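ok trying again, last paste got cut off:
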Amino acid sequence: MVAGKYFGGWRKFIHDFVYGYGSFMFFTRPSANLLLLACTMMRPWVGLLGIIGGVSTLLCRRWLGLVMVAGGLEVANGILAGLLVGYFFGPDWRTAVLAVCAGPFAVLVSAAMGAALLKHRLPLLSGSFVVVGGLLLAVGRALALPWGVPAPPPPIEWLPMPLAEFLKALGGIYLTRTPAGGALVLAALALSSRTLAVLAAMGFILAELALVVLLVPVDELAGSSAASAAIMAAIMTGGLFTTPSLRAFGVAAFSAVCATVVSLSLFNALWFLALPALSLPFLLTTWLVMYALRPERGAQWRHYWGFPALPERNLEAARQAEARGLSPFSIPLKAPFAGTWTVYQGYDGEHTHKVPWEHAIDFHRLVDGRACRGGGERLEDYFCFGLSVRSPAGGRVVAACSDLPDNPPGEVDVINNWGNHVLIAIASGDYVLLAHLRRGSVTVKVGDDVVPGQPLGQCGNSGRSPHPHLHLHVQSGFALGSSTRPFHLSGVCIEVAGGRRFDLNAVPAEGDLVSAPVVSEALRRGLHMPIARRLTYRAAEPDGRVRDVTIEVDLDPTNQFRLVTEGGAAVSLAETDSLIALYSRSGPPDDFLDGFVLANGYIPLIDIEAEWHDVPPTSLLPLPRLLRGLAWLLPALVSARSRYRKEWDTVHLVWRHSGEHSLCLAGTPVWRCRTDAMVPEGGSISSFSLTVGDRVVLAANLASVGIKGDTGVPGWDVPIGKVV
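nice, full thing came through this time. structure:
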């Protein structure tokens, strides 16, 4: 029973151990982590103690009943501490015991240090390795353990010196400062992220230039250690914690130079204490840069730092988020009205939308191309006058005015520019202003909490407004007239040639017709995905095989809904008041789930014919090997684009969603495929298909709908033909 307690779930144990090698660089590929393991084993004694440190950490974590500490980084820190013990001390049973001690210390120090750093929004990374490693070195010296004598690396005559030094600096990250060890680290970097490999090369080049300027030999330990620190600082500040961009590369370059100087300083300062700097130089540089460039330091840093992930994943997520109205550089708002209105003046409008109010939109109502009846002598002649104005966001009313008179047509009040208005403080820390409202129509007061769609007042003609219209902007400060911030309308329809475009990131221009579509309750009810919902599809493949594939809805430990297949492939699921969206594909390869996500990336819950656009991950496309390799090699230049159209099928009485998907190189389409999906008014997605050229590569029909069983709750499935 004791063995079962410690060693039960050995598959997860091995998984956590292997992933620990690259966890502080957020590697997700098992092959990349195994390459790092192989790098440490180039010196078997050192690599063995690294294994002992990692296993000890996992066993201690399990014994203490902890699921994960500091995001799993305690395993990486335990491995590094074990490697350090093996690097400095030679073979001895006491040295092995010291490596075992790395585990408990790594767990405890990671927990305490990670919590302290989190308060300042800083990552742990290899921070606990510095503390635990220094402690173990002190103990080893007190025990008079035999010193390890690293064997000199065999010379590689044909390798150019700069490349050899680059590889040695990479290998030094895992205490294997040899070209062969560095080659394995470089392979792991390139396999996981080409962007990180480029950042590593850039960090090394800048470090070498700085060392040359400072007259420090680049092939000695001080210079090589400084290059390692520069590489890691560049990777962290320009790759793993932000989205790839020119600014990110600039920050990475700055961090690399700083880390080089900090490394030289600490190397010399600690030399007299007979202590190594370990990873302290890159850690201090990374923490200082992240702390100095906090969001409150300036608008340009407000959304620079993000959730740590490989740069390619961050880039795909940023592209899709922007297409779906979640750009960090623009505030999403709902339409502040019902029905269809026309943009009277847009961003940078020629009348009044100039700096600092360039980000603003004026709306009015046109009927047959006219804003009013007759000559428009009376306010009541204008079609928008008196219509309801709704809250475009949730928040708290911080200012409201309703007692200013409405101007006769053609007159303005230049004393009270904004007229009757409502100012709402929203979660981002900004303020939404709705201005020129009708006298006496405002229905909210200061201190009221409002929700999107809540009536606030009526469109009027107060303030600097010659004709009835609604002014909308987002401002950065509380005072009326503060500088404006970019915003967009989410979940609206824009009239385009041939129909309507449903848009989650709309910045309508002058003359655009904007409408707030009505959500179909039948679609919302039919497509709703409760926990344990089970959908079984009968899928036909190109070779003629037919198989049943089951998708289930679950809730992960972070309260994120997911669709999961029997093979463990998963995609996150989000439901809002106007759409259902799939994002963040994870798990093993699964052509069926990829096709399902591509065909149903997001579905607007509206009952009108419309089109919309999306930016899916390129990994969802059934690309030829050459193009897949190109997308892997050049993620910044290669992207996917999807265009969907929703039409009512009068024959089958379902909504048909047709999608055209392109792989684009520098914005130019180079490959295409298409999808089709059928969505009944009150049911789940009944069928979908994926076609490349004239070849159908996947066709699936819904066979049954059910609920997954649970303890005390029986599962059930109903054939689709019998669903009521």
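cool. Confidence is low (pLDDT under 50) at residues 1-8. The chain has three domains: 1-149, 331-516, 521-722.
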